[in-house]
Each structure stands twice: as structure tokens, then as C-alpha cells.
Amino acid sequence: MSRFYLFTETAFHHEGDKDYLKSLVDETAKTGANGIKFQVLTKPSDFISSDHPSFNQLSSWCFQFKEWESVFSYTQKKGLDIILLPLNTEALMLTQLFDVKYVEVHSVCFNHLKLLKEIKNSQSNVILGIGGRNIKEIKDAISFFGDLVKVLMVGFQSFPTSIGDIKLERIIYYKNTFPDLIMGYTDHSAYNDSFSIKSNEYARILGASVFEKHITINEGKRRTDFESAVEGVKIKRIIDALNFIENNILFPQDQILEMTESELNYRNRQMRVVAKKYIPIGKVLDYNDLTFKMTGNNEGFTTMNSLIGKTTTNEITVDKLLTQHDVM
Predict the structure, then answer these.
(1) Per-residue model confidence as pLDDT tens digits over 238-264
(2) Residue 285 burial (CB < 10 Å; 0-12/13-18/19+)?
């Protein structure tokens, strides 16, 4: 079973086109991703001020509750987990109708107490999006939600985001500070930047095991969040890269010290105990009789203490490898 979890992000990339949103579900299902995230806003006025320059546009992109039911049903039929990012309280009613893997708290909503209370009341497993949040705010949120918090998601959207601005080393800091929580990484590198794949590899090695990436149908085609959205084929490449790390670099704790066959072969090249001089039958062995040399043989003894005090049962010539058959 995989030790990492990856879901795609849709945000408002659908721009109010439900068929396009379902095509993102289809594209995600082809990649082998575990799930897909939806930012759900059913009433724009619950989230954005009417004075905001994007109010009218965002309003035209919002789906009604029944439409979201249709999208969630479609997603479940595709065998994908649902990650819900609610932007108003009504969105949380979807947790009563569907099996939602995680409810994510958007960083912009950290101080929206009414929404936070409703999320807590839903008793859903929580992801905290901690980009742009200081350590006190993170600790306060963890304290508020208690054991419901499962994942801390490092990263933020800057259309696109430079890898240096993320400070990936924070993953180590948060992992050490909150050892009981899972570390996550949400990549927002430019779609045509090699870091759109590589940064996930770095994050995995640093300790992240939950990953999020924006998905699109036509990479580079201008629409909301297109700057960091990638096609399904690149999502597959991320998954392949993470699988490579899991199979070749990171191992379960109980396997870390196990030697592979090639390492055992290397170990077996070690020096073996041979006769330092001619040793007659019946000689009680001491250190003056023995020495270490490479022999090209995997048999024999690798420590002198295993032989000291034993009596030879055969004549042993100089440089001869000693085996169990030569002593008693």
C-alpha cells in the first residue's frame, strides 16, 4: 500500500462550467490520484464583499447546492475520494450526504469563527492550509479542532509560486513540532516549470506524505488558476516520481536497517580468518596462529574470537581459510 496520498485541486478553474468540472474529475480518475478537491461556495455573498472587484464574476461561477450534489455523486462513481474546501457554511451540508475524506480549512478562513465551528461540528477529518499563517495561529487552530486535525498543508498560491518562497524546509520544522500530524505539500509552481514535479519529490523526502496539485485539461490555456495547473499526464509523472522515492529512497521504519541482497553480497566480501602459519592437527588455536585476509570465499569465520581456544582437526597450511570442518 502506498505511503503517500495525492489529490488534485479544481478551485474555480471550472469558471462555472459544470461539464468542465466533471471533465476534471475524469482527468483525475485517469491519473491514479486518490482524490479530488472542490472549493464549494453556494452563496457568493457569504464569502466575498459586494464591493470586491471580482464579486460579479465569482457570483457567475458559483454552483447551486443541487449542482454540487450532482458533481459529488459523479465523483464517487469514478472511485475518487472527495476533499471539500467549504467557503460558506451551507457547503458543509454536503458532509451529511457524502463520504468526504477531508474538510480543508482555507488559510483565508482561519479567523472565520462561525465557519470553523461548523467545520468542527461536522466531525470531519480536517486539513489545515497553513500557507500565510504564523506558528501561533497554527497552534491555535490545532487546539480548536483537537484530534480532528489530521494534515498540515504547506504551500500557497501566488499565480504561480516560486519554490524559494515556499521554504520547503518548514516541512521538517512542522513535522518535528507536531509529530502526531501528517505533513502535506500543495505545489503551485508554474505549469511549465520543472519544479511542478521536482518540488513534490523534495517535499516527500523532507517528510510530506499528502500532496495536492491543480489539474487542467489544456495546460497553459488561460483560465482561472491556469498558471499552476497541469494536465493529467503530468500528475501521473508526479505519482511515478513519488513511487520511485517510496520504493528506492524512503522505507518503512522496520525495514530501514534491513540489508538488500546486493548489500549482503558486499558485506560477504569482508576479510576471513586464515592460517598465519602452518598449524598441525591437535593445535589449540591462539591469536599467533591466525590472521585476516580477503579469500574470495563466503564460508569460514569473520571473527577470531570464534576460533580461539578450539582444537584443529586437520593440518592447516599458510593462508588456508579455516572452516567449521577444521576445528572442534
Answers:
(1) 999 999 999 999 999 999 999 999 999
(2) buried
* End-to-end C-alpha distance for the chain, whole angstroms: 49
Residue with cell 520547503: 168
Can you give the length of the chain in residues? 328
Q: Which uninterrupted H or E stretch holds 90?
A: none
Q: Which domains does the chain have, with CATH numbers?
A: 5-255 (3.20.20.70), 261-326 (3.90.1210.10)
Here the cell at position 180 is: 502526531
Residue with cell 497554527: 138
The secondary structure of 68-81, three-state, reads HHHHHHHHHHCCCE
Distance, CA of 197 to CA of 232 (rounded, Å) = 12
Q: Which residues have a Cβ under 8 Å from the Cβ of 251 and sit 6 or more positions away?
A: none
SS3 273: strand
pTM value surpassing 0.85:
yes
Orientation of helix 232-248 relative to helix 18-31, angle to 10°: 30
- ∠ CA 315-318-321, rounded to 5°: 75
| pLDDT over 70 (residue 7) | yes
Contact 58, 35 (CB under 8 A): no
Question: For the residues 318-328, what does the mean pLDDT come to?
Answer: 97
The per-residue pLDDT for 189 is: 97
Q: At what angle do helices 232-248 and 195-206 cross, to 10 degrees?
A: 30
Please answer whether residues 83 and 72 qualify as being in contact, where contact means their C-beta atoms are separated by less than 8 angstroms: no
Model confidence over 9-19: pLDDT tens digits?
999 999 999 99
